[in-house]
Write a structure and sequence with these properties.
The complex is a heterodimer of chains A (286) and B (341). Chain A has 286 residues and is an alpha/beta fold. Chain A is built from six helices and 15 strands. Chain A has a seven-stranded mixed beta sheet with strand order 10-9-8-7-11-12-15. A six-stranded antiparallel β-barrel of chain A has the order 1-2-5-4-3-6. In chain A, a hairpin with a 2-residue loop joins strand 1 and strand 2. In chain A, helix 5 runs parallel beside helix 6. Chain A is globular, with a radius of gyration of 19 Å. Chain B is an alpha/beta fold and 341 residues long. Helix content of chain B is 28%, strand content 19%. Chain B has an eight-stranded parallel beta sheet with strand order 4-19-18-13-12-9-8-5. Chain B has a four-stranded antiparallel beta sheet with strand order 6-7-17-14, with no helix packed on it. Classes of the chains: A alpha/beta (286), B alpha/beta (341).
Chain lengths: 286, 341
Amino acid sequence: MPLQTRGEVVSVRRAGAYSVLTVTAPGVPEATRPGHFAALAIGDPQTSSLLLRRAFSIHGVQSRGIYGGTIDLVVSDVGEGTHWLLQRRRGDAVDIVAPLGRPFALPREPVACTLVGGGYGSAPLFMLAEQLRERGCRVDIVLGAATDQRLFGVLEAKRSATTVTITTEDGSAGERGRVTDYLEKVMERAGAEVVYACGPMGMLAAVSEVAQSVGAYSQCAVEEAMACGIGVCMSCVVPVAGDDGVTRMLRSCVEGPVFRGDRVRWDDIGTIPADAVGAPAIAGGH
Amino acid sequence: MTRAVVRYGSGVAAPTPNVDMSTSLSTFEMPSPILTASGCAASGRELDQFFDITKLGAIVTKSIMLEPRSGRPTPRIAETPSGMLNSIGLQGPGVESFIENDLAWLRERGARVIVSIAGGSTQEYEDIAKILRLQEGIDAIEVNISCPNVADRGQVFACRADSAAGVVASVRRSSDPSIPVFAKLSPDVTDLATIALACERAGADGLTLINTTLGMVIDTDTMRPALAGVTGGLSGPAIRPIAVRCIWQVREVLPDIPILGVGGVASGKDALELVLAGANAVSVGTSVFRDPSAPMRVHNDLATALAERGFARLSDAVSFAHREPEIDEEPIDDLDVPEWT
């Protein structure tokens, strides 16, 4: 059940190319599971011309302490909205709706799990790693990015995983290449039966393919543009096959952001597959 | 069902001013003049997590069509200054699933319901109306005529008086005579009054003003249209002046027709503006995306705004901006005319 709350900025600190925003959000930490996200309003409601909330996967939570409950979000300064957020200083108010979405499903058995993060998509993986380890699961982490400044959470990964593999496309840190160039080897070494992934769609598609090829179960948190984050606007849909084999356009904000990797029709994202429920003879209307 | 707690430092303890907020849209009476807007509230269930939806005038559902519909490809939205474009393409489960799941839930929840319907042909609108006629718990029908008419080269029904009137007449004829039928008009027409008059003559019990206005964004990085559907409906505060203008123009030609105002309402004062222009009730649409508790907040702030202006009843403020200009009636000879000696 999401809460809408007026949070206060506790801190904004740099982390490579990104920043970690810590805000108070009483009641949110207790309800947050790994994979949940928060949607933040941008600007003063009276004067801001930015209407849409920005969604961030929840990186960490602290339910106690001097600030009461706080949440950590990883923000990349990519546009006006995120720029405004990163200009906030301690004590500034931010309107937060959280926790939102369907979180990662956790295995009942203590199986080995491999966690894959692309860029700051790794944000929710460390909370996940902690919970998996509490269940006796072996955790291996693979983090990849274009360049070392765009990696997120390398130190945290080292604290929470049996092995950490770093890849960068330019070779500036770790192995040169992409996460999927090394994923199969990592999984094999760990005997992984489950893969969790968060990052760009292309990476998720590739991770999901690797998981399927080795017979592992995959859970992917997708990134799709959202307007409301709460399930009313139908902006953030992706084609996903159900238990019945039928493809439906599902909202990544409420039916996701975490989907089974083998169920998402990765190649059809950005389209309406012809066999999807209600696929158009004629499109139109608004 | 538990509900999300809206934790705000201020605004919680503010006493509700003693203003009679009840209103009606034709024969449909409501305790609040604030409704949701079609396509911005799904069928109410999600927003009920943030506030008690039964306190609103009504939930206006997302437009329902005869068959399930997948909508358009993504990207479906683009943010614009004080607004957004959408090209959702009326994704929905179809009328049968809507009745079984959404309408059933709304009835059980005890919410007042305006069902928005859409179609690609006059026949489709009529078929949906006939199916809905057999259902309990619908307080009014809103006809979304901003849909392409398959039989007319995809021309939007709302843009031609004859096709708009054709759909309205057909839905009115096919619906339960005891519930009002509202036509939701598009601002993208040369002369809105003509369309409004045609819908009224065709039997519309009221008008919803306005639907989104067509816009387009080009992504300057990819140098292609930002939306997969190329064009989209512009909504949000950016279009509020258009809504006010449309309500005003229609109120001038149809002094008594019930009007549900929609367009960029984010605050109580925004809602008041639409009421003063002639709206009997006001929908809060896109602002819900920024603030999921916006409809209740707008209700409370509208009550305050009315009280501050000395209105005891919302209904007294409807069309108030159309009143004759106050004339200074002091007789001229009361003026202190200096005497010339």
